[in-house]
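REQUEST FORM: STRUCTURE PREDICTION
Request ID: SP-0412
Submitted by: Lab K.M.
Chain count: 1
Length (residues): 162
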Amino acid sequence: MLEALKQWAFALVLTAVAGSIAVFISNSQNLKKYIKFACALAALAVMIAPINSLFKGLPDIFNYNKTENQEYTAEIDFDLRELIMKKSADLLEQRISVTIEQKTGIKPENIYIYSNINNNKSTEADIQVEIEKVIVEMPEEADTSQIQAYLKEILDCEIIIE
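STATUS: Completed
RESULT:
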């Protein structure tokens, strides 16, 4: 990291020195303007060069080119929907578990989430995951009425606490 910073600073100083020498050697005032402009652009390019390296490891999500051998199939659509439902259920399960533990001090034993994808919209981007039923298995000492009332407030689905 420190070595890269040294190289960047050296390139910046070298650009400034080369620009100063070019301006000093030039006789014409009009030519000096263009030399200063070109040197300023070169210095700017050297200054912002490290920013490019920040984005090199990121995937290019805005330039997705479909190859010829990739075709849309129903299996891909189904797999994507299953992945969306599973990830949504996992995140909701974690959130419910943490919330119940914060409210009651007792961690649920198991949480089962039954969900479905609602695709009544016109585009695939409008897919919504609908939670149909949540089953929470609690230890014997838990106050289930308090937990059920709280979950009814935050979720619009059937809540079963066992």
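NOTES: The chain has four helices and three strands.
Reviewed by: T.R.
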